[in-house]
């Protein structure tokens, strides 16, 4: 497993490191004229509309006429990007509806790899395959030739492009964290929690002991950015909750939710809720509602990413409601969960990508070529640089290895963010790859984007977590393994079922046992059998 290197290198070198992972070649901006593709080649004489759905696309095109980067990219490839808006809260429902009505956009982001939906859409001809020959798009070919992605082809064909997040398993460590009110901890005399009882008591104190000093019962202990951040709270009791992975028990791999360890988990989660440690509204909140609630100053802790970008989102929400107190002065990062019985603190880990790009079967070969040209460019080291610095010659200059930022400043004399100058980066910046490891590079551009103190807080937290915490033992080959019954398990929603247990007044253990028994109707035992047979036959238990 590759370790993260922390030497003080220039950001240009850091960008090139990422480029070596993602890209196969470098392309200079002047190599392709407007109306011609990049490495996809050929003149793009016919202007094409390309419809796109992406998680942040609702923020991408507020004013097409003033977004110079959008105009530059559309001119470069002779296209017009047409947005079909989704959000983190509704994308699954919208895609299901659009797939049934034949209205899926040309390009869309989803997270269905190896699920029943994925194979069903291939079989039904709802999504199309990429061309067999990807040599005209070397950066795309590079992504699809990585060890973790080669096995995801179906009958030798690739039906998606995985969206790379980090270049190793370790850098995911800050993706599951608690950001807590340091000032509330100090006022209430609370030290960093270690045990389950420590966490329970701290969160209850945030909710019940008037930490904001207004004499009202109006504060919340723990809230969440999204539903995915709920179960990891109990990762200290059962580490595989952190990344929802299969676990080997008594010589057999099983999904984490089928483990007997869930009995203790459901009791603890019920207690956390009934004793007021958890946001009473958590079950009806939408993604990012928790960020807004934390910003309003009524929440003691939020379960979410403590990456530089995650902290920046919290900072933006906080700054809207708290003009006299800086977020960086009240924020403190702690592990998302308590110490395990074995004495370890466990941390989140995952495969190197999350979510994928898919292409509607209605996309013909001409349009597919244009889309792949665009993706090849978005995976190039040239674009990675633009993603951080903006437009060369306008927002930055390069002399040798020295990059000088020249972009506009705001009224406070601070450089404007790339997203404020070019909102289309809310789409293009992550459409082909998340590239989030660049956030952890110590650089001027990251200090501008995320704030110097918050960037340092996240970087130091990552170093400490990699050094001191244990990654959840995860068989990545098994996680990416396909079997017919395993793909059908995607119909199971353990988080939704855990929520029902937390809200109920029935015995939590009996209720969970009944829920898991019901999973048999969705093929649980058959999936376990198929997976373990495949592990033995393919030698995946390494």
Describe the structure.
The model is unreliable at 1-41 (pLDDT under 50). The protein has helices at residues 11-22, 68-77, 91-101, 116-124, 138-143, 147-150, 182-188, 196-208, 262-274, 289-295, 308-321, 327-330, 365-378, 381-389, 418-421, 425-431, 444-450, 452-468, 476-479, 484-488, 494-503, 508-518, 524-538, and strands at 48-53, 79-83, 107-110, 161-164, 177-181, 220-224, 246-249, 252-255, 299-304, 331-335, 346-347, 353-359, 396-399, 402-405, 470-471. With 542 residues, the protein is α/β, with parallel strands linked by helices. It folds into two domains: 48-169 and 352-452, Periplasmic binding protein-like II (D-Maltodextrin-Binding Protein, domain 2); 177-344, 3-Layer(aba) Sandwich (D-Maltodextrin-Binding Protein, domain 2), CATH 3.40.190.10. Helices cover 39% and strands 12% of the residues. α9 (262-274) crosses α21 (494-503), α10 crosses α11 and α21 (494-503) runs antiparallel to α22 (508-518). β1 (48-53), α2 and β2 form a beta-alpha-beta unit. The strands form five sheets. It has a five-stranded mixed β-sheet. A four-stranded mixed β-sheet has the order 6-9-5-10. The chain is built from 23 helices and 15 strands.
């Amino acid at each position: 497993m590759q370790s993260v290197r922390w030497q003080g290198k220039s950001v240009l070198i850091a960008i090139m490191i990422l480029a070596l992972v993602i890209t196969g070649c470098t392309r200079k901006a002047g190599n392709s004229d407007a109306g011609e593709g990049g490495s996809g080649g050929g003149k793009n004489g016919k202007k094409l509309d390309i419809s796109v759905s992406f998680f942040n696309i609702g923020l991408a095109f507020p004013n097409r006429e003033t977004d110079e980067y959008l105009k530059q990219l559309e001119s470069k490839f002779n296209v017009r990007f047409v947005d079909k808006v989704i959000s983190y809260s509704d994308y699954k429902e919208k895609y299901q509806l659009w797939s049934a009505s034949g209205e899926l956009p040309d390009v869309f982001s989803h997270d269905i790899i190896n699920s029943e939906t994925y194979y069903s859409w291939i079989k039904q001809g709802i999504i199309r395959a990429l061309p067999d020959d990807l040599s005209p798009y070397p950066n795309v070919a590079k992504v699809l030739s990585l060890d973790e992605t080669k096995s995801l082809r179906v009958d030798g064909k690739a039906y998606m492009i995985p969206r790379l997040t980090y270049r190793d398993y370790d850098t995911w460590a800050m993706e599951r964290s608690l950001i807590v009110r340091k000032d509330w901890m100090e006022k209430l005399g609370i030290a960093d929690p270690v045990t389950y009882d420590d966490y329970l008591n701290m969160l209850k104190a945030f909710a019940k002991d008037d930490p904001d000093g207004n004499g009202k019962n109006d504060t919340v202990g723990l809230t969440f950015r999204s539903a995915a951040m709920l179960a990891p709270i109990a990762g200290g009791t059962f580490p595989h909750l952190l990344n929802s992975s299969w676990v080997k028990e008594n010589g057999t791999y099983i999904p984490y939710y089928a483990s007997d360890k869930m009995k203790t988990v459901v009791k603890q989660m019920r207690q956390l809720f009934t004793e007021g440690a958890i946001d009473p509204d958590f079950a009806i909140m939408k993604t990012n509602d928790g960020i807004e609630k934390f910003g309003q100053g009524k929440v003691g802790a939020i379960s979410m990413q403590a990456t530089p970008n995650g902290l920046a989102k919290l900072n933006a929400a906080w700054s809207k409601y708290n003009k006299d107190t800086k977020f960086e002065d009240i924020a403190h990062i702690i592990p998302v969960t308590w110490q395990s019985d074995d004495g370890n603190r466990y941390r989140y880990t995952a495969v190197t990508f999350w979510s994928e790009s898919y292409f509607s079967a209605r996309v013909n070969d001409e349009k597919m070529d244009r889309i792949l040209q665009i993706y090849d460019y978005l995976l190039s080291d040239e674009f990675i640089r633009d993603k951080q610095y903006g437009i060369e010659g306008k927002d930055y200059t390069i002399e040798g290895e020295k990059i000088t930022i020249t972009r506009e400043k705001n009224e406070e004399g601070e450089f404007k963010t790339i997203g404020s100058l070019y909102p289309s980066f809310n789409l293009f910046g992550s459409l082909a790859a998340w590239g989030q490891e660049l956030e952890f590079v110590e650089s001027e551009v990251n200090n501008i984007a995320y704030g110097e103190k918050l960037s340092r807080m996240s970087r130091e937290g990552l170093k400490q977590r990699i050094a001191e915490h244990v990654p959840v033992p995860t068989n990545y080959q098994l996680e990416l393994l396909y079997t017919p019954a395993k793909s059908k398990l995607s119909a199971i929603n353990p988080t939704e079922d855990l929520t029902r247990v937390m809200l109920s007044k029935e015995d939590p253990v009996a209720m969970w046992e009944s829920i898991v028994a019901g999973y048999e109707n969705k093929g649980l035992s058959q999936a376990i059998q198929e997976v373990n047979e495949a592990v033995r036959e393919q030698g995946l238990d390494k």
